[in-house]
Design brief:
Layout lengths: L27 H11 L6 H10 L6 H13 L3 H9 L6 H13 L3 H13 L6 H14 L2 H13 L6 H14 L2 H9 L6 H13 L3 H10 L5 H13 L3 H13 L6 H14 L2 H13 L6 H13 L3 H10 L5 H13 L3 H13 L6 H14 L2 H13 L7 H13 L3 H9 L7 H14 L2 H13 L5 H13 L3 H13 L8 E6 L2 E6 L8 H17 L15 H9 L2 H12 L6 E5 L5 H14 L3 E4 L4 E5 L2 E2 L6
Parallel strand pairs: 3-4
Antiparallel strand pairs: 1-2, 1-3, 4-5, 5-6
The chain binds zinc ion (2 copies).
């Protein structure tokens, strides 16, 4: 998800009025410009260029300006530079055309260099070109170049120019120089909503959502773009609850969201598992005729499948007036997430039949589906088609899917060999996938071999270390487990805290491990105790090898008993009606013990419980889970 685009100022050139029909064919330059406009590709250009030279117009500013624009529109800046080099005394407009072209093709350093050359040639920059170059400085975080331009702005008395100021705020904000950004911001005579929005986005880009909110609150009349910038800022910094709360406030103040707002809020819903709010936004999109374009449509599909309602995802997909690769990708990924492997592969085939070319993302989704379904032959067929049929070089995530697939069906040695033959360096995720498979299939010899490789791997993350320590622990190798733990500590790696959320009455409730913050904590813990009692009387005893800490047996049981998903489920049980499906979203993988316990809870309480963890969905019902205990 990108930040909302804020366009400030527009091209001020009087020179480009070239569609005047009276003069169009009366001047030879205009004939050439017409030729340029009808030109479809850069390959036709040399012919036109030859004509320009033959007609003796190679120094005609109007014509040259259009030629430079043409080159930059066709992403041919090398050609543009060559033509530019031959221009005698180019004026500010020609410099601007070249600089804009470089910025469009993301050659920011070249843009800044050409600007310096222009100033060196004593061509005075105007507010438009200064705004452009400031953007380039912002993209490169080139503080020196930007400050120098700021100095020139003061010298040329351009400081009151709105567009220049806006770009100065953006430039300082992008560089993280907020004191300077605020200084320029304070020079606006009153709170300017666009300038405020620029500043809000910059703060949010640096993770400073609090500062962003202060600026936001000071804007007297906030427009849709301003609201969206703040909501997006929260969403991009993982503050989903705040994003959703602000969206509700926006509704309260009757400000209409645009497509970008909708996409931001839907992404927040996906991450939080806020199905009800997501549904409401879906109906809002329909009611207010917000275009169900591929952008909004794909995000809706993604939201529904991540919030556990695959049927709604399918419905949105079917209703979309036009389905492109992104829509197919979302749908295939959604099907994979829910373990509908056959359907996902079918969708992949259908997409190819429609003449749509699969992308890297498509292959991750479809290979994931093969992996979840244990479809080895089909998986390899599709994997090989990447290079053979589509010329797409597999990336690490594609290899990861294949290792996962082999590991799942127990082809552990084959997976090990496969990693050895990879055309890129395997990372800790790949080895981690194999280690997880070894642990599940009980191949301790190979587990140790893989563990050794992982210990020497310096880029291992907390999940890998925990898995490694637990593997050693389950082998009874306590010393090795302790060694891994101290190594993890020594490298300053902290375990990401587990967090589960549940939506009840349109509100998201979050729980951490052993959380005591919830106002209804008493009821929650009472329910948990009650369930533990029933489970114990049914002969259930918690597994203890999954706890990383060195604590005695009694404490271990206690630490397990309050994993965040259990608290979220208990809250769901006490606060919803008997028929309601309980939907919980967890940021980490569900541990084996919670998995066993949730299966039993679903059976005892006769509830459907759906848990989305980091990897996939678990639909618990009547003592069983849809993942077949492999996840
Ligand atoms: Zn657990
Ligand atoms: Zn499961």
């Amino acid at each position: 998800m990108g930040s909302p685009t804020i366009t400030v100022g527009s091209s001020p050139f009087p020179l480009i009025s070239n569609s005047n029909s009276k003069t169009k064919h009366s001047h030879p330059q205009n004939q050439t410009i017409s030729l340029l406009q009808s030109c479809k590709s850069i390959s036709q250009f040399p012919q036109i260029h030859a004509k320009v030279i033959k007609d003796g117009h190679q120094q005609d500013t109007h014509l040259l300006y259009n030629i430079l624009r043409f080159c930059s529109n066709h992403k041919s800046m090398d050609y543009a530079s060559k033509i530019f080099e031959k221009i005698k005394n180019p004026n500010v407009y020609l410099y601007t055309a070249l600089i804009d072209g470089q910025i469009t093709s993301r050659s920011y350093l070249d843009a800044i260099r050409i600007y310096s050359q222009m100033v060196g040639e004593s061509v005075e920059p105007d507010s438009y070109v200064i705004s452009s170059v400031l953007r380039a400085c912002g993209f490169r975080s080139d503080l020196n170049a930007g400050r120098e331009i700021h100095g020139r702005v003061l010298k040329l008395q351009l400081r009151s120019n709105r567009s220049v100021r806006m770009k100065l705020i953006e430039f300082y904000g992008k560089c993280g120089e907020f004191a300077d950004a605020r200084q320029v911001f304070s020079e606006f005579p009153e709170r300017d909503v666009v300038a405020s929005t620029v500043l809000i986005s910059c703060y949010a880009d640096h993770g400073l959502t609090k500062d962003a909110r202060v600026v936001f609150e000071e804007v007297p009349e906030k427009d849709t773009v301003c609201w969206t910038a703040m909501i997006n800022g929260y969403a991009r910094n993982g503050r989903m609850n705040e994003a959703l709360a602000l969206f509700r406030k926006m509704q309260g103040e009757n400000v209409r969201p645009n497509e970008v707002t909708i996409v931001c809020v839907l992404s927040a819903c996906s991450q939080m598992g806020a199905l009800e709010l997501g549904r409401w936004i879906d109906s809002y999109v329909g009611k207010y005729n917000i275009r169900l374009n591929v952008f909004v449509g794909s995000t809706l599909i993604d939201m529904y499948s991540k919030c556990g309602s695959l049927d709604d995802a399918r419905r949105v997909f079917t209703e979309m007036p036009k389905r492109d690769v992104v829509a197919y990708n979302s749908m295939i990924a959604g099907l994979a997430l829910h373990g509908k492997s056959g359907e996902a592969v079918e969708m992949f085939r259908q997409m190819a039949q429609q003449g749509l070319r699969p992308t890297q993302v498509t292959f991750v989704a479809v290979l994931n589906a093969c992996s979840h379904g244990g479809l080895v032959d089909l998986g390899f067929e599709i994997f090989h088609s990447m290079t053979n049929k589509y010329g797409i070089e597999p990336r690490i995530e594609h290899y990861g899917c294949m290792v996962d697939l082999l590991g799942r069906v127990g082809y552990l040695e084959e997976a090990y060999d496969f990693i050895g033959k990879m055309r890129i360096e395997p990372d800790h995720v790949i080895w981690g996938a194999l280690l997880a498979a070894c642990k599940i299939h009980g191949n301790l010899t190979l587990a140790e071999r893989v563990a050794e490789i992982l210990v020497n791997e310096r880029a291992a993350d907390s999940g890998t270390y925990v898995l490694l320590a637990n593997t050693y622990a389950s082998l009874g190798k306590w010393d090795a487990a302790a060694h891994v733990r101290s190594k993890m500590k020594g490298r300053g790696i902290q375990k990401e805290p587990g967090c589960s959320s549940i939506e009840v009455n349109n509100e998201i409730h979050e729980f951490m491990l052993g959380d005591l913050r919830h106002p209804q904590r008493e009821g929650i813990y009472k329910k948990l105790e009650e369930l533990n009692g029933i489970l114990k009387s049914e002969g259930y005893s918690p597994a203890t090898d999954i706890v990383l800490q060195d604590i005695d047996e009694g404490e271990k049981e206690w630490a397990l008993a309050i994993h965040s998903e259990r608290l979220a489920i208990c809250y769901g049980l006490i606060s919803t009606k008997q028929q309601t499906t309980i939907r919980v979203v967890k940021n980490l993988r569900v541990c084996g013990d919670c998995h066993t316990m949730i299966k039993l809870i679903a059976k005892i309480t006769r509830r459907k419980i759906i848990v989305r963890d980091r990897n996939r969905f678990h639909h618990f019902e009547d003592g069983r889970c849809s993942c077949g205990d492999y996840w």
